[in-house]
Amino acid sequence: MGTPSGELNKVSHREYWEGFYDFYDPNEGITQDKCSYHSETEYCGKVIAHEKDCIVFDALCKISVGDSIEVIYPHFQDDVKMKVNRIYDTDEQAVPNTRPNFRYKLPIPQEGPQGGLIRKCKDTSS
After folding, report:
1. Are residues 67 and 97 in the same domain?
2. Are residues 31 and 88 in the same domain?
3. What is the count of structural domains for the chain?
4. Are residues 99 and 59 in the same domain?
5. Contacts of 19 (CB under 8 A, 6+ apart)
6. Do residue 23 and residue 48 come from a single domain?
7. Contact between residue 68 and residue 81 where contact means Cβ atoms under 8 Å apart
8. Predicted local confidence at residue 1, as pLDDT
9. For residues 36 and 115, which has the higher predicted lDDT (pLDDT)?
10. I need a labelling partner for 96 at 20 to 30 A (CA). Which of 22, 59, 76, 87 fits?
11. How far is Cα 98 from Cα 64, in angstroms, rounded to an integer?
12. Given this model, what pLDDT does residue 121 score?
């Protein structure tokens, strides 16, 4: 997948600081301009099941055909990076994107273990 520090940057966090490794000066680590949280990814869904080469998931936010996503599992070696080519609603109809709080199916190249989360990188070009 990625380096441990790369994975740490994907979760919501404040700026990381190494101050406790070598010294502790309480004024050294305080930065007023960097007190907000950062996140490079957006969590988009919870995997509920696997059915016929698809994952069934509850959408937490919008995923569109063409998005690049990661399906992450408890063991990182099971994670899948993929481009979304098709999305199906619960009636097996193809849809262009998901809506929060609805269930969908997504074809996936390999079946993973039970559970899992779907995330996508945020567009930071703006």
Report:
1. yes
2. no
3. 2
4. yes
5. 25, 28, 29
6. no
7. yes
8. 46
9. 115
10. 76
11. 7
12. 77
Examine the domain organization and report whether 125 and 70 are in the same domain. Answer: yes
> What's the pLDDT at 126?
45
Which string of b and e fits 32-48 if b means at least 16 CB within 10 Å? Answer: eeeeeeeeebbbbbebb
**Average of per-residue pLDDT values in the chain:** 79
| pTM of the predicted model as reported, rounded to 2 decimal places | 0.70
- Owning domain of residue 2: 1-39
Number of CB atoms found within 10 A of residue 69's CB: 21
Same domain? 13 vs 57: no
Closest CA to 26 of 35, 34, 17: 17
Structure tokens at 44: 């988009």
DSSP one-letter string for 17-55? --HHHH---TTTS--GGG-S-B-SEEEEEEEEEEETTEE
